[in-house]
Amino acid sequence: MSDAALAAGRTLGILGGGQLGRLLAEAARALGYKTAALDAAADAPALQFVDMPVVGSVDDPAAARRLAEVSDLLTLEWELIASSVLEEAARLRPLYPAPSVLAVIRDRKTQRDFLTRHGFAQTQWGSAQSAADVPYYPVIVKRRTHGYDGKGQARLSSAADAAAQKALFDAPCVWEKIVPFEKEISVILARGRDGQTAAYPLAENLHRGGILHATRAPARVSEETAAKAVALARAVAEALGHVGVLAVELFALPDGGLLVNEIAPRVHNSGHYTLNACACSQFEQHVRAVAGLPLGPTEMKGPAVMVNLLGELWAKGEPDWSLLDGVPGLNLRLYGKSSARPGRKMGHYVVVGDAAEDEWNRADERLAALARL
Ligand code: AMP
Question: Cβ(140) to ligand 1 under 6 A?
Fold first, then answer.
């Protein structure tokens, strides 16, 4: 692959057509690129937007080939893509991040082995083919692959609990000691083809039922903890040889320690606040990194809060968006998904500026009103 930056007018192809792909495509177009994306659903958020939608499964090498044929450079919005597909794509066009990065991340065991190998702190864990491999309770058991947004994982308090959740073990799992964290934080960091890095102010995350509910930035942690977290994320990106945006989810412990929970080798939900709070969003930053452009600035214009809008908000029909009219500093973003299932990420809103703190405290009230509860 030549080191030349992707020239304006060329096409960036994205494996995956969800909201992350769409937001990447919007950023790519704003930088002067043409865009393509691959997804099985013709009405997937990114396919509604890109210049060249390609309908096909991200698990199908032939579909990836069709995407590669209309693209000059490839990237992805989703890490759970089969290695055969990534390798086929990378054979045809430059692909960032490289398939070797995904091979580490895709499976929770190989990801945790990587963390162990490089000495990055994490919770106690082990492989579990069945409940017999779980050494103590309570624990969290997670499927090794294809678990996300709280899917494919359960907190088990006893052997009886494990027996009741037998189906979880139908696929290989890992068990993890439950971390008594003080806060969940994430580092959104970009690494360019040339190895330069840029980190955004730390995100502080609130999860509910294993799904991100809300993020505030900057996170309420000491400068020392923030610097430690960024150094850790940078070391992770370097050890992986990652190119693009990467999110490192961390548990912050009461004693100031940090444990890695999870690495996402892509733009991340906890970085959505950058869309409105930063001159260069995580999406533009990812495109810059993979395209070989200089990285953009990561400072915030002011404090920010992001709240996810999940499918349950649609239980009584379209939420009453007029309630958001006139809220200062509020930016609503809907992803254009045709059906709203509980737990499905349908959109989010971001509040930037003085009202952010208040929004953090009133988000539940806001969501209840939107849902007409
Ligand atoms: P994950 O899909 O691994 O990111 O897990 C989703 C969420 O479940 C995390 O953001 C935490 O809120 C919680 N969680 C996952 N693993 C652990 C753990 N080992 N200890 C405590 N909480 C956890």
Answer: yes
Q: Ligand 1: which of 125, 253, 261 to mutate, most ligand atoms within 8 Å of CB? A: 261
Domain that holds residue 322: 183-370
Strand bridging mode 73-76 / 11-15: parallel
Does residue 105 sit within a domain?
no
Characterize 212-236 residue by residue with b for buried, 16 or more Cβ atoms within 10 angstroms of its Cβ, and e for exposed. bbbbbbbbebeeebbebbbebbbeb
Residue of 140, 146, 212 best suited for mutating to test ligand 1, as the one with most atoms within 8 Å of CB: 140
Whose CA is closest to atom 8 on ligand 1?
210
Atom of ligand 1 nearest to the CA of 180: 21
Question: Which of 176, 193, 216 is a domain's end point?
Answer: 176
Domains in the chain: how many in total?
3
Residue 103 lies in a domain: no
3-state SS assignment for residue 80:
coil
Query: Mind listing the pLDDT tens digit for each residue in 222-243?
Result: 999 999 999 999 999 999 999 9
Q: What is the pTM of this model?
A: 0.97
